[in-house]
Design goal:
Helix content: 10-25%
Radius of gyration: 18 Å
Largest sheet: 5 strands, mixed
CATH architecture of the largest domain: 2-Layer Sandwich
Shape: elongated
Number of helices: 2
Structural class: alpha+beta
Oligomer: single chain
Length: about 150
């Protein structure tokens, strides 16, 4: 992890990457990506159900969140709040929340009382019914209605 830079104040950050209910594989991936992109880490906060990374770049943090969703599947929420103004321009702090799904592509799951197989986890979750092959698209905001069996 990149911990210091002469150009950036020690505690300065533009974005918070919040990881919740995640596997060690996700943590390892995030730390590798932070090192690879040389993203400055102002602070790491370990919580009971996840980790917060205070990072130096809004754009790279957003991109990392998107990559997490595509690679691991899960709920991704991005919010921005006005932090300051510099030279008449608004400066925003971004919060990227990633919550990993408890199932992966190929897993057998139950949704609304029926058995399905997870076919794809991209922009949404694609399930295929075991009994008749019918396909159903589920939004990540509803991912907690799907139970791994």
């Amino acid at each position: 992890m990149v911990r210091s830079s002469a150009k950036i104040h020690d505690k300065y950050y533009e974005a918070t990457l919040q990881l919740r209910d995640i596997s060690q594989e996700v943590v390892d991936f995030v730390e590798d990506e932070i090192a690879r992109t040389k993203l400055y880490v102002a602070k790491v906060v370990e919580l009971k159900n996840g980790i917060d990374y205070l990072l130096s770049d809004n754009g790279l943090t957003r991109a990392l969140g998107k990559t997490l969703q595509q690679k691991f599947g899960g709920d991704l929420k991005v919010t921005a709040s006005l932090f300051s103004q510099r030279d008449g321009k608004d400066i925003y702090r971004v919060t990227v929340l990633f919550r990993e799904a408890s199932y992966r592509k190929g897993d057998s799951v139950e949704y609304q009382g029926d058995s399905y197989e997870v076919k794809l986890m991209g922009k949404d979750i694609l399930l295929q019914a075991v009994k008749d092959g019918k396909k159903v698209h589920i939004k990540y905001k509803d991912m907690d209605q799907i139970k791994k069996v």
